[in-house]
Amino acid sequence: MTMHRLISILTILTVTFLLTSALASCSGTAAPDILTTSTILADVTRNVVGERLSVGSLLPIGTDPHSYQPTPQDTAQISESKVLVINGADYEHFLEPLLANVDGERTLIEASTGLRLRSDAENGNASDPHLWLDPNNMIGYVENIRDGLEQFDPASAEMYRTNTRTYITHLEELDAWINQQIAQIPPERRLLVTNHEAFGYFAERYGFTVVGTVIESFSSDASPSAQQMAALVDQIKLYEAPAIFLDASDNPSLARQIAAETGVKVVTDLHLESLTEGAPAATYIEMMKYNVTKIIEALQ
């Protein structure tokens, strides 16, 4: 083998190695320090940790946690994580079999710890997990995440406290902004019909009446009876509710059947359970502002 050919081969191998390393780095294959169960929790957690730790979401963007089917890759991600942040309040049913099969130890942070839960006495006292749709509850999430991270990484506690204070200010500003926007709608027009029972905390905070839901459950992974559908049609007509609001991941077929009988609009592009890749809901705050804007447009 000539020296020229040897140099050529070594050059090719070097370039190949560098390209492979660069691609691996760009693809984000390294396991995050903190794993959250949703993109919403990932965004909020990033606001607490800043650049100190990497954060990833177990569920991809656009996924409905109520109907999510876990994969073997999920088990591997949890096993590699150092901190796992969950919503709690019986939200992540898919997580139970995963946690039973993961290796290693990690800090578990339940974001909804200590917050008041809405429950449904007619549905076995099931808890409503959608606390994040009230920014004041999200303040409690942020404080719980901060407390958990301080235990995991005491050396960075002051930074976590500073970041938390800053983000809470943004959440308080969001709450004030929502109140200003909602003031545009007369109280008698503040009527919500939704796919499933997700807007309870939002409605309580901002003075809405939930007229009814297509699916009478805190989970979208359920099916209504013909009697429930007929009752919802009657409620919409009684209250003269102008719209049915759906998450972008919801199947709109039942809502459209009801709309055909009642003449209401169907808003199919809210983002309640997941953020989006870029606009309109790249962050929790952007998600809330987008949803409020869509609701106001439909009710005015």
Q: Could you explain the architecture of this structure?
A:
The protein is an alpha/beta fold and 300 residues long. It contains ten helices and ten strands. It folds into two domains: 145 residues, 3-Layer(aba) Sandwich (Rossmann fold); 115 residues, Rossmann fold (3-Layer(aba) Sandwich), CATH 3.40.50.1980. The strands form four sheets. A four-stranded parallel beta sheet has the order 2-1-3-4, with helices on one face. A two-stranded antiparallel ribbon has the order 5-6. The protein has a two-stranded parallel sheet with strand order 7-8. It starts with a helix and ends with a helix.
Offer a concise description of the structure.
Helix content is 47%, strand content 13%.
Task: List the keywords.
300 residues; alpha/beta; Rossmann fold; four-stranded parallel β-sheet; 10 helices; 47% helix
Largest sheet: 4 strands, parallel
Q: CATH class of the largest domain, anyone?
A: Alpha Beta
Low-confidence stretches: 1-28
Which structural class is indicated by helix and strand composition? alpha/beta
Overall strand count:
10
Taken in chain order, the helices and strands follow as: HEHEHEHEEEHHEHEHEHEH
Assigned CATH superfamily of the largest domain: Nitrogenase molybdenum iron protein domain
Residue share in β-strands? 5-15%
Helical content, roughly? 40-55%
CATH architecture field of the largest domain = 3-Layer(aba) Sandwich
Number of helices: 10
Biggest β-sheet: strands ordered side by side in the sheet: 2-1-3-4
| Mean pLDDT over the residues | 89
Q: Give the C-alpha Rg.
A: 23 Å
Give the N-terminus to C-terminus distance in angstroms: 80 Å
CATH fold-level assignment of the largest domain: Rossmann fold
How many domains in all?
2
Overall geometric form: globular
